[in-house]
Write a structure and sequence with these properties.
There is one protein chain. This protein folds into 2 domains: 46 residues; 87 residues, Monooxygenase (Up-down Bundle). The mean pLDDT is 92. It is mainly α.
Length: 171
């Protein structure tokens, strides 16, 4: 839909430019004088372009789409359970975050966020490398990457919690 390769590592800025161009070309106002079927077709294409953009710009949705294309069903209930090490680590990180919140320590919150964002970046790089491998279009080729998707979900939730805490501390 957006004219990009089936891979995880993409130039999001370039895809965003393509999305804007397609959105302008398919905008309903451009088809106001057209027939009903042409307006519906343009609207349908615009919706598809917007959905494709939402998928591509979000690393989790992008990975889910690549897994689905390889025949691997995804979703938190279909993925392997996280390792006890990851669970323990995230529990400790959340406890540290709760302490920083309680103390109204914005600097500590920011430091925790930077640490988790760096880990999320590492996971994204691992996903990019895995999806770039020769077997990445097969179920067997991508299955080893599935735990990385779960790990990325943990980091995303943590960073969302950080954002809420930062807003609260600013208020």
């Amino acid at each position: 839909m957006l004219g990009i390769e089936r891979k995880f590592d993409i130039d999001v800025a370039a895809v965003e430019k393509t999305h804007r161009e397609l959105s302008r070309a398919l905008h309903p106002d451009r088809f106001s004088g057209a027939g009903a079927s042409e307006r519906r077709m343009a609207l349908s294409r615009a919706v598809e372009v917007n959905e494709a953009w939402r998928t591509v710009r979000d690393p989790i949705k992008r990975a889910e789409a690549l897994f689905a294309l390889a025949g691997v069903p995804v979703g938190e209930d279909r993925e392997p359970k996280p390792s006890p090490t990851l669970l323990m680590d995230m529990l400790e990180q959340r406890e540290s975050l709760a302490e920083a919140k309680e103390k109204h320590d914005a600097s500590a919150v920011r430091t925790l966020a930077e640490s988790i964002a760096a880990r999320a970046g590492e996971v994204e790089r691992a996903l990019a490398a895995g999806f770039a491998s020769d077997g990445a279009r097969t179920e067997a080729g991508v299955l080893p990457l599935l735990p990385k998707l779960g790990e990325l979900r943990f980091y995303r939730r943590f960073l969302e919690e950080v954002s809420a805490i930062e807003e609260e501390l600013e208020a």
